[in-house]
Write a structure and sequence with these properties.
28% strand; Substrate Binding Domain Of DNAk, Chain A, domain 1; binds magnesium ion; binds potassium ion; alpha+beta; Substrate Binding Domain Of Dnak, Chain:A, Domain 2; 3 domains; 686 residues; six-stranded mixed sheet; binds adenosine-5'-triphosphate; 37% helix; Nucleotidyltransferase, domain 5
Length: 686
């Protein structure tokens, strides 16, 4: 069994694994610790990760990047419309309002959902891990942004299913980072909790959280974010600057040309990185467009001036997280800056003035999420023993539940589950109902959410059931914020009794880590609750203590009620299994092409080997006409390999190989016989 943590970024993916020594980050086929989050559809097979990224300029319309942005989003959201304008690949509106990616593959126009593309990326990372670990990888923990909606979380689980992964937890990126930070530290003050702010600036987003650490435990107090502020926005500042300059200087409109845009954008990203270490940087692109070589130059000061808007925006989620934590700046022990987007020096400056102290960079900025996820996976997995450590996360949104009578609220803002509630956790509702009823889960406060998120989450039908006593009937509904941060109704039951059943369950419970492990391994998956049989299941004895020390046993009649769930905008089971089928076919095609490549290589090396042997080793064991025939065939095959046989099937290569082998084999046999004879006579003489 594997213990793996995945960080799927908009730009880079990192794989962490628990090994005997601790947490390792795996190298991909190019020996890199980061794998580009890219899926490219070549002529006959897909190329993913590093190889895929290399085709971005060659094959822009079929090379998909930043797919994480599109997961669980709708085509008409203004943010998405903005993104799509920058993407070189084609997107359409799906029937459900979601985004579909359209591209040509194997001579056909094909459509893929972002979930399918994400599934391909997961598959690729899974393969890298399996190759390294030499075992099947399924159990894992996957990092997600804290601002992910219910739908996006479910979409991630669907993508994992397509790839054959079983996430034990979707874990908030900053929580994973905080876990990796806290678990190894032994020097926390005994006087009280140590408060740390984590700021993660990635390629597309910024996430902030405030966490408190004590010996043996960490708690997230608040999460805040800007979903639209990351490294790529700084690239865009440079892009606009140079595009405008080149228009004037060279008379070219880079934005109007997809390939030129990709190249300029890539150069701007490189230039941005150079500016992180240097006060100025040049930009040179040969033959960018209309056969023009372009040259540019920018100083760091100028870049910072152009980016001042973006830099100012970084303080917004920082303020929010601090405000929500109820702490003042003086209470903060340190600010930990992670995510590679944060390497711009001006960001350190901004944070320094914001928190009155320089942020520290002690954490590995690009690997911390994957490492934290791997740690969490080890903690949840039964095969690893990790030191007792309590991880308590906070959910960033308030959730409400309503029935047709209106909201079921326990809080002033009509929410049932308050923002920053610890999770996984559940809440028991007791409702008086006599017949089947519906409940809807929704976001109670849209101000807490990223823009354009629909408040609707999901609806639940509870029933059918029959009551025998109209008056004394309570329906107990168990609402859960599960380990992935997904809202569900896990069960409902009928209590035909006047006695409160608090002895059966605490009404509002945060799951401890031991229980969390159990939840991770059972029941709390994203699979919607299947409707259970509503038969009378059991008569549960509940003990009621009486004052005189005698224990009376009282029977509460409990009847399980079926619960069915409908997620607004989620994909149906049938669609998911169709996606799994398609992925399987695509994998077969990739394997076929890989196999053909291997056969081609085998044929090529055979040709070179024989060309040499026929002149030397086998010379004395063949006639001149044999040698001529073989040489001729070797030459023919080599020519074929460069021309018609450049891109052929496994069978074609095998056939050629067999044909030459038939010519060479008799000679090879003569040679071997002679060898054997020589060895035998040598043995005799010895
Ligand atoms: P996200 O978290 O948004 O999904 P991600 O996790 O893939 O994305 P990271 O790998 O943390 O993102 O960061 C990628 C960003 O960091 C890119 O925009 C990249 O240009 C930027 N970056 C990397 N190195 C530097 C550097 N030296 N200076 C400035 N920016 C850098
Ligand atoms: K990353
Ligand atoms: Mg990231």
């Amino acid at each position: 069994m594997s213990v793996v943590g995945f960080d799927i970024g908009n730009e880079n993916c990192v794989i962490g694994v628990a090994k005997q020594r601790g947490i390792d980050v795996l190298l991909n086929d190019e020996s890199k610790r980061e794998t580009p989050a890219v899926v490219s559809f070549g002529e006959k097979q897909r190329f993913m990760g590093s190889v895929g990224a290399a085709s971005a300029t060659m094959n822009p319309r079929s090379t998909i990047s930043q797919v994480k942005r599109l997961i669980g989003r709708t085509f008409r959201e203004p943010d998405i419309e903005n993104d799509l304008r920058l993407f070189p690949f084609e997107c359409l509106e799906g029937q459900d309002g979601g985004v579909l990616i359209r591209l040509e593959y194997l001579g056909e126009m094909r459509m893929f959902s972002p979930v399918q593309i994400l599934g391909m990326l997961f598959s690729h990372l899974k393969q890298i891990a399996e190759k390294d670990l030499e075992l099947n990888v399924s159990d894992c923990v996957i990092g997600i942004p804290s601002y992910f909606t219910d739908l996006q979380r479910r979409a991630y689980l669907d993508a994992a299913t397509i790839a054959g992964l079983r996430p034990l937890r979707l874990m908030h990126d900053c929580t994973a980072t905080a876990l990796g930070y806290g678990i190894y530290k032994n020097d926390f003050s005994v006087a009280g909790p140590t408060y740390v702010v984590f700021v993660d600036i990635g390629h597309c987003d910024t996430q902030v959280c405030v966490a408190s650490f004590e010996s043996g435990q960490m708690k997230i107090i608040s999460h805040a974010f800007d979903r639209n502020l990351g490294g790529r926005d700084f690239d865009e500042v440079l892009f606009s600057y140079f595009a405008a300059q080149f228009k004037e200087q060279y008379g070219i409109d880079v934005s109007a040309n997809a390939k030129a845009s990709i190249r300029l954008r890539a150069s701007c990203e490189k230039l941005k990185k150079v500016l992180s270490a240097n006060a100025e940087a040049p930009l040179n692109i040969e033959c960018l467009m209309d056969e023009k070589d372009v040259k540019g130059f920018i100083k760091r000061d100028e870049f910072e001036k152009l980016s001042s808007n973006l830099l100012d925006r970084i303080s917004v989620p920082c303020h929010k997280a601090l405000l929500d934590s109820g702490l003042t700046v003086e209470k903060i022990h340190s600010v930990e800056l992670v995510g590679s987007g944060s390497r711009i020096p001006a960001i350190t400056r901004i944070l320094t003035s914001l928190f009155n102290r320089e942020p520290s960079r002690t954490i590995n900025a690009s690997e911390c999420v994957a490492r934290g996820c791997a740690l969490q996976c080890a903690m949840l997995s039964p095969i690893y023993r990790v030191r007792e450590y309590e991880v308590q996360d906070a959910f960033p949104f308030s959730i409400g539940f309503s029935t047709k009578e209106g909201p079921i609220c326990t809080l002033s803002n009509s929410a049932l589950l308050q923002k920053h509630r610890p999770f996984p956790s559940f809440k028991i509702l007791r409702l008086h109902r006599t017949d089947t009823f519906h409940m809807e889960a929704y976001y109670a406060d849209l101000n807490e959410l990223p823009s354009d998120v629909s408040p609707k989450i999901s609806s639940f039908m509870i029933g059918p059931f029959q009551v025998s006593n109209m008056e004394a009937t309570k329906v107990k509904v168990r609402v859960q914020l599960n380990i992935h941060g997904i809202v569900t109704v896990v069960s409902a039951s009928l209590l035909e009794d006047n006695v409160d059943d608090d002895s059966l369950a605490k009404s509002d419970d945060h799951l401890t880590s031991a229980k969390m492990e159990a939840e991770a391994n059972h029941g709390s998956s994203a699979v919607p609750n299947s409707a259970e049989d509503s038969n009378l299941k059991r008569m549960k004895p509940s003990s009621v203590s009486s004052g005189d020390g005698l224990r009376k046993s009282k029977f509460v009649k409990r009847l399980d009620i079926p619960v069915s769930e409908c997620v607004f905008g989620g994909i149906a089971k049938a669609e998911l299994s169709e996606a799994e089928k398609i992925e399987h076919q695509l994998v077969q095609q990739d394997l076929k092409m890989e196999h053909a490549k291997e056969m081609k290589n085998a044929l090529e090396s055979y040709v070179y080997e024989m060309r040499d042997k026929i002149l030397h080793t086998y010379c004395g064991f063949s006639t001149e006409s044999e040698r001529e025939g073989i040489s001729y065939n070797l030459q023919q095959t080599e020519d074929w390999l460069y021309e018609d046989g450049f891109d052929e099937s496994v069978d074609a290569y095998t056939e050629k190989l067999e044909y030459i082998k038939k010519l060479v084999d008799p000679i090879e046999n003569r040679y071997k016989e002679e060898e054997a004879r020589a060895r035998a006579s040598k043995d005799l003489l010895d």
